[in-house]
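Batch 3, record 17
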Amino acid sequence: LAKTTQPISMDSYEGQEVNITCSHNNIATNDYITWYQQFPSQGPRFIIQGYKTKVTNEVASLFIPADRKSSTLSLPRVSLSDTAVYYCLVGPKNRDDKIIFGKGTRLHILP
Amino acid sequence: EPEVTQTPSHQVTQMGQEVILRCVPISNHLYFYWYRQILGQKVEFLVSFYNNEISEKSEIFDDQFSVERPDGSNFTLKIRSTKLEDSAMYFCASSSQGAVGNSPLHFGNGTRLTVT
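Prediction for the assembled complex:
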């Protein structure tokens, strides 16, 4: 499973766009990049997944450069309810491998 | 939208007692997982389960832990003799095709286990 590095915490204000970047220098050819969101006392929730270029859904966008060694989760016009921990996961290529969460990025949205 | 359900939401037990945490994964999913999260810490992988057997397990998942899929719908985690350090949120997850590759995990809302 590719190791990921993300900022430990970020602050932003309501209405702003928030970009959280994740580094994954040893990403493998078959690895996907997946982001989860976790609110306090709840299980992680899938946000978005991508392999290359850009993916957009109703919640977020995911930007992946050509070398795939990093990815950026973009949350448009955040609100207070977007305060959560965001996890970037990469891989694995085998279906029953361990799926390991890192420490994530604690995003705090201020009014 | 189908969801993973976990019961109970909160379990209090005395040290040394056995506990069984229950999960009902999404019905057409084939891969099942248990994670735990000690308060203020990261989500830790415990075990993955596919085709009625354990696929992977972490160092945390020692002989005190076991998992079972007793019927077509439930997936359980048993801790044989609880310790104080087992106090945590325990999350069950399922996915249709396994792993991160092209099948994300769907998590339940967890069982908060308190060992006294």
